[in-house]
Amino acid sequence: MYKIFLDDDKVVQDSIDNLVISPKLKEKLNGVDSLEYTIPYDNVYFNDYERRKSKIKVMYGADIIFKGRMLDERKTFDGSKTLTFEGELAFLNDIQYPPYDFAGDYDEFFRNIIDYYNSKCDQDNRFKVGQITLTDPNHYIVRSSESYSSCWKCINDKILSYGGYLKIRYVGNERYIDLLAESGSLAKQPIEFGKNLLDLENYIDSSEIATVIIPLGANSTETDKLEDGVERTYTAGRLDIKSVNDGIEYIESSNIKKYGRIETVVTWDDVTIPQNLKNKAQKKIYELMLENQSITAKVIDLHYANDEQPYFKKGNIIRIVSRPHSIDTTAILTERTRNLNNPVEDTFTLGTEKKTLSSSVNDSNNATNEIENKITGNFLNDLIKNQTKLLANGKDGNIFYGFNAQGKLSELYFTDTDNIATAVDVIRLNNKGIGFSNDGFYGSYKNAWTIDGTLNADFINAGTMSCNLINGGILRLGNFVNRDGRIEIYNDKNILVSTYDKDGIKIFNENGNSIVMNDVEFAGYDNAGNVIFTVQNEKFVMNRAEVRTSIDIADRLRMSYMDRKNGDGSTKNVGVGFVSIVETAKGRSTS
Q1: Of 175, 369, 458, 578, which is most buried with the most CB atoms under 10 A?
Q2: Tens digit of pLDDT for each residue in 167-204?
Q3: Cβ atoms of 338 and 345 closer than 8 Å
Q4: Entry pTM
Q5: Buried b (16+ CB within 10 A) or exposed e, 438-467
Q6: CB atoms < 10 A from the CB of 169, how many?
Q7: Could you give the dihedral angle defined by the CA atoms of residues 552, 557, 558 and 563, in that order, rounded to the nearest 10 degrees?
């Protein structure tokens, strides 16, 4: 269960009975994480959120997986608010780093930026420099800028664009920022078709692919100062690799046969050794092919079924195997979207791994049949589990063929035994449709999808269904099957005018006024959330009312306009008074 805290001491979410609406956490490697969720107008902390001031924390077990500050809010028609928070890396955008000229290694450069940031920022937003494992092979880089830029932009443009990974971690009350050479550890569980992979999209951006690199290093004016006996050659006044590459100034990729010759020039201003320049070029030509490939997948994290299985973390190096998609590779988890209250909807974006792995990949146990026992909030979870288990056990079935009068294949029969006469469960497929029988081949096919477009089924499970008309006796939503059952009604302007859900019935008008009916209240509210009327404990309480004719009280007394007859027979209203209903019925009037 993910727990959410506002300003450390306010528990926003901690149990099934205390949930926010649709919380979604987007994590990005070398990027700023973000969190979004919605709270209803009657939430106890509805008015406690302040832009750029309110702090939020998300925990999973004992782990802090997100800390940040409120960035924005959007009010919806029904009075609720959708809140957006940015991760703490965004703090680095608050301070501008001054112009500089730097020569040295990444360690010193990174510390300079963080130290300057800490000297300017609010105390609560400071970082402690943690682990620094990124280093240049020569321990020498050159970086400069003639203008101000944010500390985040400086780190991103002058460090991360060349390599390395930036991460925040928390130890006690301390906030550490690490600059690492590796993205993360090897995940112990793979992503595998038939186990925990639900959907997959593989994308290659060919617009940036290069198959030939012409690498250039430092200016000759820089290398001429060096007296190290190294043989150097130059192209356009810059160091090249001819002296260590058999007189050839470029590096070719093995993909040149597949994509053709596509050249690009890559310059490393701070590289002064030809062999180091060649090494960087060989690595870069490999990366240029891979860094434009991404895999987006809907994945079930097997940790939710087995606490001893470590959960996926951004930066993990993961093996992904999908035989139907011809994919078997390792990849870095670069982005993850966590649907905090419905983890089976989590999505992963993986960039193909850019480094050679020497360690082996450990297989995980197939725990799919246990996953949903710990995931609540969506009845489709159980269906996924049951369907997966059912289909996985279908390998012992049999296929028979049916032929038409011309002797051509016309039907397929899938049975649970090797004899049609003894089969009980049968699937029959032909040009008229597909039918399902549970009482043999010659029995009735109660469930079928026929060629005329008719779907006959005892039970239909669907995540989303669009239709013009539903005919039936009972429409059942909510309860233990799906506690989030909800009906929404919109007018012809596509404005929400009513909802029916676990919180009762709500009716809205275009001015924002609403009526709420549930087991706790029957009340009306104005567009500012102020109570207009309530009905509780057999009492009707209203702030203001307009009565056009009269009010009867306990069938005994009526409050109405009082008229008096004038001498000329005309009447004149003299105000409001009380009349006995009983006396009026007898023909007498009492005021």
Answers
A1: 175
A2: 999 998 899 999 999 988 888 888 887 777 777 765 55
A3: no
A4: 0.52
A5: eebbeeebebbeeeeeeeeeeeeeeeeeee
A6: 12
A7: 180
